[in-house]
Amino acid sequence: MELPHIVSAKDFTRAQLDALFERAGTVKKQLSNKGRWAEERYVVEQTFYGLLTRQTMALLFDQPSLRTSSSFETAMYALGGNCVTYRNASRESSIAKDESLEDTIEMLSGNPTVSVIVLRHPEVGAAERAASVSSVPVINAGDGLEHPTQALVDLFTIQEALGSVEGKYITLVGDMHARTARSLLYALTLYPNVRVYLFCPRGLWLEENARQYLLDNNLIPTESEHGLLEDKAPSSDLLYVLRPQKENWHKDIKNQELRRRNIEKSVEHYYRFFTVDNRILAHMPKNSIVLHPRPRGPELPTEVDSDPRVLHKVQGRNGGPVRIALLEMMHSGEWKKLANK
Ligand code: NCD
Hints:
Blueprint lengths: L13 H19 L6 H7 L10 E6 L5 H12 L3 E5 L2 H4 L8 H10 L3 E7 L5 H8 L4 E3 L7 H15 L6 E5 L5 H10 L6 E5 L8 H9 L5 E3 L4 H4 L5 E4 L14 H18 L4 H4 L7 E3 L20 H6 L1 H14 L1 H4 L4
Parallel strand pairs: 1-2, 1-3, 3-4, 5-6, 5-8, 6-7, 8-9
The structure holds N-carbamoyl-L-aspartate.
């Protein structure tokens, strides 16, 4: 029996996304109907509460996280299940004693009360490795290359705000080595007539194999390190702003002081040309939106937050309903059923 792992956005089908977003929209309405402590809200929640009673989600996080980990945990609790969480897995699980990722996953998934594993890990291919030895579904909550559930949250937010994803002009701004960018781009290949423009600093281009995947799937990105963002803004339906992933920069420089100075210089250039502030927003159409997977820094200054087109907070909050809907669909078998459609 093949398990409904969520490893890469390349595996998504359009039928899965359409069904997920419809369900997530309903869940979102149910959750926002009443005040947080209101008794009525508790009644409304009965519509999905209890589905995963006595089931446990094991979260193994080996990198920092706020939005992803908390929305998976609260989604599991909202469905009536439990969580066991390792937040600094390389220090607090037996990985600290050199237990391999494979042995760790095999052990956790072998526990008869664990029904799903959520993994965040810095290495390329970690989710795939975990899925290959797990006896329960593994969800990739961010590994070396991908962050597929963030792409689900992003696409849900785009569809909710713009009515559809198809035919939209999407500009990604900044560091294309971000795993959130890669997963979003892969998932965008499922939507016809999307145009993508990548505006990124030299050296932070999308890698060749990722680019090739897009070309093979009829998404032809235009890329530039030149020009000005304000020239691209007027034709964009969406600006997707990315954080400089500076922890990964200039890794080839061994001298720490030299590396620090190089990073500092690159960051300065980044904030100068790849920041979306009120000046850029002034060039954007009325019905456009701005998203950011967060955490954000000066590349999306707080001055933009009062503009109704800037939706990164809504996007962050959509993580809950989308992950509740995803767990429901994985549990009911619908996710798997729609895998080949
Ligand atoms: C991102 C991540 O960890 O990949 N955060 C998230 O989960 N939304 C973004 C980042 O760190 O740049």
